[in-house]
Design brief:
By secondary structure, this protein is mainly α. The protein folds into two domains: about 1-45, no CATH class; about 45-88. About 90% of the residues lie in helices and about 0% in strands. The protein contains three helices and no strands. It has helices spanning about 5-20, 20-40, 45-85. The longest helix has about 40 residues, at about 45-85.
Length: about 90
């Protein structure tokens, strides 16, 4: 038996032993508990998060644009009112 075959056999035997041991049951139980905990946390997927982050960035850009328009309009209104006040 060559060294590679011996290593493969050892790995196979260890995998079989692990699969039959209580450790495999513990691993399955832990995975189940963690999965249930994540479900209860109501987490979002990365894709959902990225979509929401993109929407938020676009909304923020639009809010900034509208804020600038409001400042310009307010400036024009102030200029008209100050001209009206001095003309009266």
């Amino acid at each position: 038996m060559n060294r590679t075959q011996w290593m493969e056999d050892l790995q196979k035997n260890i995998s079989e032993l692990f699969a039959k041991s209580p450790a495999a049951d513990i691993e399955r139980n832990v995975r189940s508990m963690v999965t249930q905990a994540f479900v209860r946390l109501d987490l979002v997927t990365r894709e959902e998060f990225d979509v929401q982050a993109d929407m938020l960035a676009r909304a923020r850009t639009k809010v900034d644009q509208l804020g600038e328009q409001l400042r310009q309009l307010q400036s024009r209104l102030d200029a008209l009112e100050s001209g009206k006040t001095t003309a009266e």
